[in-house]
Model the fold of this input.
Amino acid sequence: MKKQFVVLLSSLFLLTGCPRDNKMTADAVQDRASIPGLDASSVTTLISDSGITRYRISTPTWQVYDKAEPVYWEFPDGIFMEKFNIDLEVDTWLRSDYAHYDESLQIWELKGHVQSMNADSEFFETPQLFWNQKTERIYSDSAITITRETSIIKGVGFDSNQELTKYTILNPTGVFPIKDE
Done:
């Protein structure tokens, strides 16, 4: 009888200790545009054009704000992009501490220790740059340092083709070596 009473008492505690009407709920999301529809970690992806691999993008965090107006992608922990030539060799590369991509304008904003190497092995450093994919232009109004094999060019502001091979430094500064003829 004592054993049955203990079993009955235990069952009573279990039934009263777990009320069925206490459902856990969360508040509805009020501003869906402020929350990413995609939040991915440790991403590496390839981008191809006409079946040919053109780019590789690697990032610790990729967030897509698909309900924002305009739709944008954010890379809060930085990004590393490589562009491949026709032989699938790395032609150029670019990295930054932060990146933002406006999907409708097709404009990238890269900030925070932006570095790039072009196909001529020229090394670019700037705190901020923009890449307009529609116009195929890269530009900035920030300070820029371009390290070449025989010289270092510094300035404020630049405009370039997207390959960084034909560029203009808007306000150049620095020492430029001149060869005697």
About this structure: The longest strand covers residues 52-65.
